[in-house]
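chain below, 224 aa
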Amino acid sequence: MRTKDENMRVLVAEDEEVLAELVATGLRRAGFAVDTVYSGDAALAYLGLHDYDVVVLDRDLPRVHGDEVARRLVADASRTRILMLTASASMEDRVQGLDLGADDYLGKPFEFPELVSRVRALRRRSARPVPPVLERHGLRLDTVRRTAHRDGQELDLSPKEFAVLQILLEADGATVSAEELLERAWDANADPFTGAVRVAMSKLRGKLGEPALIRTVQGVGYAL
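prediction:
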């Protein structure tokens, strides 16, 4: 279970597989860790296994209806926020979806920038707000504009590197384990034995330059 604010993890539950993958790809490009499922029972299984900030939930899911997924999240007092998608944009449908416990509602077809903006807004409501700018040791991360600087020089970071650095900054000097980084910045397909965190950390250290800012705490994790 995550205890600090962090880079966002999103579940996309949409039975139109092409649309689900398009949404997931766009959200990953925006810097989020994203998993996709195509049925309501799979959505419930993933929601039971992982700690998501937001679920993008299609109402008309097979096997277990999206409405039932929303009901169970509400019944479990889950902190996961629900952005409900529907092919119907009628007022009655919107009201019904919100009454079921959805935090926001978006009709299809939708403009992708609006989806990203709504997901970000829901994430801010899911936990303690993250300061829009994080600063420490000459590092400056703008979490809204997704820009990073060290001593005034812009850093060319990948979305994954940005996520890792944001998590370390939010830890405020505390040590973050590799397992925690993997849980918070990677999706469920990440193999914990591939050394993905170690590789990303090596690239991030190279881009941050000297003097070194990230230290390895042997057997524990990483800290600024």
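The domain at 9-126 is CATH 3.40.50.2300 (Rossmann fold). Residues 112-126 form the longest helix (15 residues).
thats it, cya
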